[in-house]
Structure formats: structure tokens, C-alpha cells
Write a structure and sequence with these properties.
By secondary structure, the protein is mainly beta. Helices cover 0% and strands 56% of the residues. It is built from no helices and seven strands. The strands form two sheets. It has a four-stranded antiparallel sheet with strand order 4-3-6-7, with no helix packed on it. A hairpin with a 2-residue loop joins strand 6 and strand 7. It is globular and about 35 Å long.
């Protein structure tokens, strides 16, 4: 008799791509952007202003399967709100980044 189960339900698909919270946020200098990918794939990480204009192309290359850490230097940026935009074949993800 099984009284308790632990694990992933058959109905839950594994996360193909996850853009985890950037830190530190607010940023002033080197910022780490953790990304989880279920496969090796090409990715581009952009920093855009709120109007969607590209400010920095922070990364353009291959993500490895598993945990990835991408980095951005925000030292020379004006204070304000920006968007991190991760573009891959699995889809696009974004999150807000504040620069102080």
C-alpha cells in the first residue's frame, strides 16, 4: 500500500525555459541573470528601455542545458526602469530591472 507519493505529476511538463530573478535588483554594476534551460539552445539577452528600444545586447550565444548565469554591467546606465528580454527558440521571457 502506498500512502504518500513524492515527485512530479504526469500532467506537469518540465519547464523548458525559466528566467529567474536578476540580482541585485536594483542594480548598479555587475548584475547576474540566472536562466534555467531544459536543452542547449541559442539565446539573446537584451536590455531595453520601457519603450522597447535596445540599450544593451548583454548576451548572444549558446545556453547549456541546466543552470546558466548571464551577466550585465549596468554601471554606465542612467537610473530608471529597464526590461531584460531573453529570446530563444523556446520562446521569449522578460522581467523588469531597476537601475539606481
Amino acid at each position: 500500500t502506498v500512502n504518500c507519493t513524492v515527485g512530479v505529476s504526469e500532467n506537469e511538463a518540465p519547464v523548458a525555459l525559466e528566467l529567474q530573478p536578476a540580482f541585485p535588483n536594483p542594480s548598479k554594476g555587475i548584475t547576474c541573470i540566472p536562466v534555467q534551460s531544459n536543452k542547449a539552445q541559442h539565446a539573446t539577452l537584451l536590455l531595453t528601455d520601457i519603450a522597447g528600444r535596445v540599450v544593451i545586447e548583454a548576451f548572444d550565444g549558446m545556453l547549456k542545458q541546466g543552470d546558466n548565469k548571464l551577466f550585465l554591467d549596468s554601471w554606465d546606465l542612467s537610473a530608471g526602469a529597464y526590461m531584460l528580454v531573453l529570446q530563444t527558440e523556446s520562446g521569449n521571457l522578460s522581467q523588469r530591472l531597476m537601475v539606481r
